[in-house]
Structures are given as C-alpha cells and as structure tokens.
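Lab notebook, bench 4. We co-purified these components, and the gel suggests they stay together. Before we commit to crystallization screens, I want a quick structural picture of the whole thing.
Request: model the full complex, all chains together.
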Amino acid sequence: MAHRSGPSGFLLTTYESAINWTRTRSMWAATFGLACCAIEMMATGAAHNDLARFGMEVFRASPRQADLMVVAGRVSQKMAPVLRQVYDQMSEPKWVISMGACASSGGMFNNYALVQGVDEVVPVDVYVPGCPPGPQSLLHGILTLQDKVMSGEITR
Amino acid sequence: MSDTPNVVTGDFEAPTTEPPSQPETADSAAAEARREIHDMWVAGTEEPAWMRSYTNEGAQEMLEAESDPALEIHRGTTVTDDFIVEEPADDDELQILNMGPQHPSTHGVLRLHLELDGETIRRVKPIIGYLHTGMEKTAETLTYMQGSTNVTRMDYLSPFHMELAFSLAVESLLGAEIPERGQAIRVLLTELNRVSSHLVWAATQGTDLGAVSMMIYGFRDREYILQFFEKVTGLRMNHNFIRPGGVAADLPDGWEEDVDEIIEKVSRGVSEYEELFNGNPIFRDRTIGVGVITPEECKALGVSGPIARASGIKWDLRKAFPYSGIDKYEFEVPTGKHGDVWDRYLVRIEEVKQSLGIVRQVLETMPAGDYRTLDRKVTPPPRKRIDESMEALIHHFKLFTSGFKVPAGETYQAVESPRGELGMYIVSDGRERPWRMHARTPSFNHVQALPTMMTDSLVADIVATIASCDPVLGDVDR
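Here is the predicted assembly.
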C-alpha cells in the first residue's frame, strides 16, 4: 500500500480505509456503566489493562462526544428508555458493544424486571460474553469491533 | 498539628469560632486609611478590631467576616451544614435540576432530583429503581444450592459478603456446623473483599474530587486482590464460592505467598493514598465539614457501617454479633467524630489497615481440616466417590438438580459488609426453595440518608457526598 519515492515520500491508500483507520484509532466510549460489568469496564481502563493503548481511554460523559456505547450491565425496564435516549443523542457514526450476559440476553435473570437483551432497544455490533467479562474479554470485543469497522463501509 | 490527624478516632484540630489572632497594627497609617474607606463604603457598620490588619482592597472584603459562609467553610470553622443564613427562596424561584441516571459521578444509575436556590441545594429527592433486577423474586425460583449464584450479583463490589449472609441464613435454618478451616477461609475472603471494595471507594472518591490519578492507584491495587480471587474461585467477581455448608473448594497451593504479597503491596498503596490525601488542601477543603450526618440522624435513618462510625457510633457487627469465628481475631473498630466526608475517609482507610491485620492473623493461624460440613444432606460427595459408587452419583445428581430441603421457619442473619449491615431474611416452608427472601442492604438506607446530608449545602458538595456514601446501585435496587 505504501510506496516510498524520494526524500519526502507518499502513501497510497483508498479513501475508505483511511477514514476507517482514523475511526478505529480514537473511538471514544460513552460512560454507560450499569452494574457489575461497569466495574470491569473501569478496570479495563485502569493501569493493568490500559485502554489508552487503543486510543480509547477517554470515557465521555456526554453522548454527543462519543462514538461507542458499551452497555455494561443489566438493563432494567425502567432504564431502557434512558438507554435509547442516550443512544439517540450520540452522533453518527456510532457503535454499540453489549457487554456481559445480562446485556446480551438477560443472563440468569429471566423475570419481569429485566429487558431480555439490549438488542431489543438498540442495534448491537459486538456481543461480549461473560458474567462479568474480564478486561481481556472486553479488549477482545473492542478489537473485534475495530476489525468490523475497518472492513465495513464508511456510510451506513 | 491538624495535618496529622489521629486516624483511629478521626480527631483533628478542634474548630475554633474565635477569629484568628492578629498583631495589633491598628495605629499604623495604612490601617487608619483603610478604616476611612470602610466607613465610607459600609456606613453604619462597625469594623471589628481584629479585621483592621486585613488589608484587601474592594468593599466586599470589608464586610463582616462572620456573615460569609464560604469564608467560614474555608477556615474550617463550620462543621455543620446549617451555615446558610438567608431566607429560603419561594418555591417558584427554585431551579429544578435533574442529575442522573446516566451521570458519571452518581456511581451507577442513581438519579437525583435537586431543587436549587442559586448554588444552594434546598431539596434532594433520590429516585431509584433503574437497576431493579427482581433478584428477591428470582430467589424464590432457585434452590438453596443455586441461591448464592443469585445473591452474589446484588452488591457486586462485595460479592463474598452477600454469599456469606445468604449461607449463614440457610445454615441457621439447617442447624449446620461449619468446620474451622471453612470459617477461616470465609473470614480471609470477606476481609480481602472489604479491602478491595474500599479500594474502589478510594478510587472513585478521588476521581470525583478531581484526583484522577487516584483512580489508577485504586484499581491497580485492587487488581492484585482480584487476581487472587480468580485463582481461588475461578472468577474475578460474582464468585459463588461461599455456599451453604462451607466453601466450594479448598484454597489452592501457594496461597500463603499470594496473600503475603497482597498485604505488602496494598499496605504500601494505602500509605501512598494517605500521602496524596492527608495534607492535600483541595481534598481537605472539599471534604471537611461537608455532608455531615449526626449520630441521631444515623440511627433514625438506619445508617450503618463506615458512615455511622464516622459520626461516632462505635457499632460493628463483627464485634456486636460475631459470625464465622471472626471474634477470634484482634482488630479495632475505628470511629470518627464529626460525621463528615473527611471522617469517612479516615475511617475507611483505617478499616483497610485493620482488615489487612485480620488477613495477616488468618494467614498465621489457618487451621487444617475440612473446608465444608460433612453433612451429606448438604454437601455433595467427593469427586472420587462418584466414579466408584452408583449411589454417590445419584446423590450428587439429586443434590444439584433438586437441591436439599430446609426445615420450615424464618431467620435473619446479618454480616458487616464494606458498606454496613447486610442482612438476609429467609422464610422457608420446608421445601428446597425459599418461600420468601429479603435482603436488608446498607446502600438502600444510605441513599435515603442523602437528603439529610445534602440539604442546604452547595452544589459542588453533591459528588463528594455521594462518593463518601459509597452506594452500590445493585445493592439499592436488587
């Protein structure tokens, strides 16, 4: 892809891969910590696992400045409208990671209180299994999402 | 010296109501000139003698210092939150502000409905239920064997305490006796869990007050404990390891070295936090005299744990109603005096040290023997027996599919969780599932105490007060 010629050099690539590359390297997440998984999400951002390696250490409190929503934890019936509103406030392009068994499928709580999977409320790009998923699992989910962004189209 | 408080009692230099003594320089020409300006601007008011040497320009500086609540807080002369002297505004002048449920400083999905009079909070209404999971109802469909899987997800910062309270309640109905080694393992794990929970509190309290490096420090030291938990139980959180009848497995080989290393690393970390916080003027200004709750209010609102102890109530269930043989170990119950955020900080840091002391004692006195009761009604047969005996296989299968029956009756068992009194109330009708289970969780009471701590304080104190209550919303909503 790259070709060096002369002292200044230049780079050849497609417009799409350049755009996608910039998107993956600074994907800012909205803070959407709900339950146990939120603690593991914080642990992923802390020293031992260091999300900053992927340009993601900036957790944005404002959804307007976020590209990614990590739904970390169980979504109750009361929380679901709030979740949808936060998602709607995020500007395109935006992605969603469903972190943990509860967010993905309701987990062990098949009862009146929980939404049985956050994909009933918002579209989900990557599901991360575990109860709660460890930091390594979440990192794997994030890398999977980056692959998905790299191979996808820039408009959708 | 107020910079080195007595951490056991939470005592720091007593607040003075007298103005600071100043050298008498009233006769100097500068002070004379300043007094003239004062008389010109603030006609009819008498300037107090001690103020004359304060030479600041601007008329607002010459008003009486006593009437300035902000200055009083700054000097540390106010330790109550009723320093606001103005008349409250009418209801239609109040500004309504919604905080949460998606807010980084509400520690989860707590929502606060605030009524503000300028910068002053006049009313606070916590709104909960955004994490309601229906766990108490789910418990009615799970056997006692499966029950600890459910309860461990309530307070996700102290899962071992949830499991312990549930197991103690079931065991009190069964009348089961737990071997000494099983009890010691329980104490080891719950006290390490108290440390890891307080480390998360330290991380979030620091972050909320602007010390983001504290977040990195707290989670760094917590990770050492979580790695040990993963080695013992197979999971970093939500372990389901303490079960009715004992614990799920024995400690792994080499656990002594791991625990020894944890004690050493976390002790070093805690002294780092103290270095960071104790003399930090920003941290002191934002915590001393903030979010005060009196012992009487604590009792009226059911507040327990470090918050009650910080206001001076020497009450710890580990001393009052010892469980799992924790009375064998020596430890102090730290208390504070003023019931403010600063005292809660001192109490929690001291609790971390005391818990590490208990862990050290468990490490030195770990008894040999069984880690779970040998009552075959509750405990599955050993793995080896299942390969040899058809009866053992059937027994194992029955135990894990239909569970064991528990005699009819009701019970309440409480443990001292990192947040306070954590109780399990179970009613059994003689079958293998609870007829009703209720958890008395400390965070629920602490959230309802937030209005008492916050009313008539300033907006900036909200995050400091919430963080010092250390609420876990899974604990509140269940």
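The helical segments of chain A are 15-25, 36-45, 80-89, 101-105, 135-151. Worth comparing against the SEC data before the next meeting. The radius of gyration of chain A is 17 Å.
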